[in-house]
Write a structure and sequence with these properties.
It is a single chain. This protein is mostly helical. 42% of the residues lie in helices and 8% in strands. The protein has 4 helices and 2 strands. Strands 1-2 form a two-stranded antiparallel sheet. β1 and β2 form a beta hairpin. The longest helix is centred in the middle third of the chain and has 10 residues.
């Protein structure tokens, strides 16, 4: 059963695993070098790579998580 644990996860599955939206995941891929692999038109993820990236502070690098453009005045 080791192969089941090591399978590639979809965007929806990694969102559920991390508890974030798909917009956040796509932003992390684009701005924070989230470990993701493009397969055709779909992004796929290895859970252990993403977990290591989060633990290393990769997710903390995008301080504009859900902030609106231009900021508050």
């Amino acid at each position: 059963m080791a192969d089941v644990q090591d399978r590639w996860l979809s965007v929806e599955e990694i969102c559920q695993h991390l508890g974030v939206s798909s917009d956040t995941v796509y932003r992390w891929i684009d701005r924070s070098d989230m470990p993701a692999h493009k397969m055709g038109r779909k992004w796929k993820f290895k859970r252990d790579q993403v977990d290591a990236w989060v633990e290393a502070g990769g997710a903390a690098g995008d301080s504009r998580e859900e902030a609106p453009e231009g900021g508050a005045k």
